[in-house]
Amino acid sequence: MCGIVGYIGNKKASSILIQGLQRLEYRGYDSAGIATIEKNSIKIMKDKGRVNNLYNLEGIDNLEGTIGIAHTRWATHGKPSKDNAHPHYDNDNMFAVVHNGIIENYNELRSELIEKGYHFVSQTDTEVIPNLINYYYKQDKTKDDNKVLKAVKNACMDLIGSFAIEVISSESPENMIVVRKDSPLVIGKGYKENYIASDIPAILSYTKDFYFLNDYEFALLSRDKIKFYDTNLVEIDKPTKSIEWDSKGAEKDGYEHFMLKEIYEQPIAIRETIGTRLSNGKVIFDELDFSKEYLQSLNKIFIVACGTAMHAGIVSKTIFERLCKIPVEVEIASEFRYRDPLIDEKTLAIYISQSGETADTIAALKLAKSKGAKTLAISNVIGSSITREADYSIYTHAGPEIAVASTKAYTSQITLLTLLAIYCSEKLERADSDKITKLKEDLLEAPSKVEEVLKNTSQIKKFAKKVHKEKDMFFLGRGIDYAVSLEGSLKLKEISYIHSEGYASGELKHGPIALIDTGVTVISIMTDPKLVEKSISNVQEVITRGAKVLIVTNQDLENKGFELVIKIPEISTEISPLLSIVPLQLFAYYISKEKGLDVDKPRNLAKSVTVE
Ligand code: AGP
Fold first, then answer.
1. Distance from Cα 279 to the centre of ligand 1, integer Å
2. 607 included as an active-site residue
3. Which pLDDT does position 251 carry in this prediction?
4. Which of 420, 400, 369 is nearest to 258 (CA)?
5. CATH number of 131's domain
6. Pocket around ligand 1: residues whose beta carbon is below 6 Å from it?
């Protein structure tokens, strides 16, 4: 989705802005632009295509301004083009605006502005914003110091939808104004300079101190001061939060792609997520105050998320139900929010989001909260929107995840959910203590077992090379392996553009087996000893029909006549996804690489899906 960068300081803004945009490239975009204040007037430079194109624009090197805003656009209203790229001017070139989000009532606002004599040069929803600001600015006959801020605030109050907005103005050339509603934006505090970005990694090399705005909070930035205001323009206090992430986390560090680096970072991400939460045999969550009585009162747990995060939820359903004996429903956020689910104060609603900015997940959380459920957010990003909405927040410690295809966030989420299930179950005293002890031991051993899996990549690479031209593939599994098959399939789709399906092995015979024919590739995951024999039967069925089969298993299935068996270490079934997903991530990665695709920034996809 769109990315925003801003700078106000004493350095040349243009280079900081363009570098910031490059760090946001992974979010997905189709055009880019910057605006700086040059001798009290605004200069906008933008174009369709890659951020790098900005370096070729005539005059870009002559920009000397030290205040500026920048944007990568992921087209929603109006095709990718120079006119539709941000920043946008108002009709008098007094204001430049970049915007992330969607203005749902832009058609009405546009008509009203046209009636007032304004004209539009783009098809975007965004262009109404600078013109609305212009309108309110001209209506205000005072000489108020905060006249621009007032105009921005009045304009924003007319907007319906979601927005993160940066504004610079020739009328107030020493300031920048930012505001957000349901769209991400962070403010980085420097020494006599300040930074804005859609997310932390873009400006992590400049500062580790961040401000997080709540909806409808306005920030008025100058070089050495940031003032915050509510919707009545009453000044409010905001604390900074220090982010521990190392800026190296947002660099490739010698790896060819971020995705590969992040796959290899999984042992450390799992270790960090376990951190001090599991020590001396005890699972501790200082952030939570769930009493035994509260947990006993629950009749349902909802786990709600999108994409990979939702797949982590499906994995953890098994462990929650086995250990806590509470029914768990895992739901896609975009469905949950509109289907009027049965929620009350006896429901615990858990929301998982790496970015913490996924629009549907946040909306689904607000819904459960409004119906009296306690809400718990699991995110990788401190201060992200979802964590500010939830009653409780706990964090994975995966470090910045840059590749669009999520890998280390997934395994960290499973790790954290496992710890959470153990924590709840110990309070409830509903599970067998030997079982819990074994799970704790296995969790601590998981990082080194993932390291083992990562040492054994040559066979996967070879198989990926062999099948990279295929058009369809199937991922099969039973029980928890079925949950993994869904994630393996998603990874392949996202970065290799090969159609694939994750299917419950036992369900194959009820339809999809009709698609199995000579040469079709099937990847079967078998880690649950209780279900292995049944899975083998299903694999035999597809082999008989000519399929090429890759098996990922912790059982001794080598030398049993299967084409390729990837052996992974044994571990408790409930947390085996931490290991079994790794060969599947690598498989998708090597296929994408073999096909010469853009592994880290696959077509049409965005890292944070901040609109519905
Ligand atoms: C994962 O590979 C995907 N890019 C996507 O499914 C992602 O997991 C989903 O959009 C949810 O994102 P979130 O965790 O930031 O909420």
1. 30
2. yes
3. 78
4. 400
5. 3.60.20.10
6. 306-309, 353-355, 358, 361, 404-406, 494, 608-609
